[in-house]
Amino acid sequence: MNALIQGGVPGVSQEPSFNLLDDIERLKREKNAIILAHYYQTPDIQALADFVGDSLALAQAADRSTADVILFAGVHFMAETAKILNPKRTVLLPDLEAGCSLADSAPPEKFKAFIEAHPDHVVVSYINCSAEVKAMSDIICTSSNAVRVVNSIPADRKIIFAPDKHLGAYVQRVTGRDLLLWDGVCEVHVEISIDKLKILLGKHPDAKLIAHPECPPEILAEADHVGSTSSLLEFVQRDPARTFIVATEAGILHKMREAVPHKELIPAPAHANNTCACSECPYMKMNTVEKVYSALLHGSPEIVLDEQVRERAEIALRRMMQLG
Ligand code: 13P
Ligand code: SF4
User: Fold this and answer.
1) Would the pTM of this model clear 0.90, i.e. be above it?
2) Probe residue for ligand 2, chosen from 58, 97, 102 as the CB with the greatest number of ligand atoms within 8 Å
3) pLDDT tens digit sequence for 43-52
4) What is the third-level CATH fold of 192-267?
5) What are the pLDDT digits (tens) for 91-133?
6) 9 torsion bin: left (phi>0), alpha (psi -120 to 50), beta (else)
7) Within 13 A of 211's CA, how many CA atoms are on the CB side?
8) Where does the chain hold its CATH 3.40.50.10800 domain(s)?
9) Order of strands across the sheet that contains 264-267
10) How crowded is residue 114: how many other Cβ atoms within 10 Å of its Cβ?
């Protein structure tokens, strides 16, 4: 066993040793495990992963997987989604505390009362929600396909969109549909400062601003491109601009820098109280290489779901997956 782990303080070291990385590879082989990682994970975890992607691509990768164990390097709702789609497989999350402010903004009992108060509405829930909320929804969406999902609903049907009010308002503007929005936000994307952003844009007049749709409307109004993490990554490769200001969690910059090393990529500035100056998701950053190793070694922490909740959540998720 690796000395870092034998020392008994998993998660303390920031510099994974070669042995630790080798041990993870060995455990993956022994346990027939794969590692799925979101773009907001630290570069060392992304390097370990068999697949790195946005929420939709990760759900699709989990669905395709034939591994016995799926280790999800992301946040709780993402690992839960993998479990909803793979009830017979073991799904591990390196730190069960890795939550999401959007998912937390929609407690199941409050959400139940909300949808019961609007029984004539189709319920569209952003994938950033709990399995219980998914189970109460008609269809799920991600930032990649939210417009497509809403457009798939007959024009005469009323729609609830939850839990992200900024993504919901963006989808409303694009589709022209009147959505009843749940009042949730991502605490990371609302931290991006429009005032600082405007100063930065003034200093880089040729830069293109690209933004995740969880950003507030005043930021999206300035953006040259709005899209999911995958879409932002694809845009910096396709667009001829040399400089991009990136309004989302700073983890995405790792893959962007690998993809376009010759281009200048500037993280959008956060409000003054954020000491790192760019936006970091504290939940995504709870995962470490040491916790990945520990989870694979012990087969824990594992995602466990109530089967009735899982079955209902799977129906809503599969409706989305059929749309692509
Ligand atoms: P993506 O699906 O665009 O990767 O977004 C996930 C997320 O949590 C954004 O904050
Ligand atoms: Fe949730 Fe925001 Fe973190 Fe994404 S960045 S996982 S929406 S808290």
Assistant:
1) yes
2) 102
3) 999 999 999 9
4) Rossmann fold (3.40.50)
5) 999 999 999 999 999 999 999 999 999 999 999 999 999 999 9
6) beta
7) 25
8) 20-97+284-304, 102-186, 192-267
9) 225-226, 208-211, 243-247, 264-267
10) 18
Neighbours of 191 (CB within 10 A): 18
Q: Is the CB of 295 under 6 A from ligand 2?
A: no
Segment (H or E) for 171: helix 165-175
What fold does the segment set 20-97+284-304 form as a domain? Rossmann fold (3.40.50)
Amino acid at 278: C
What CATH number belongs to 102-186? 3.40.50.10800
- Among the atoms of ligand 2, which is closest to the Cα of residue 248? 5
Q: Given a cut of 50, is residue 6 above it in pLDDT?
A: no
Instruction: Give CA–CA dist 64/98, Å, rounded.
Output: 24
Q: What pLDDT does 236 receive?
A: 98
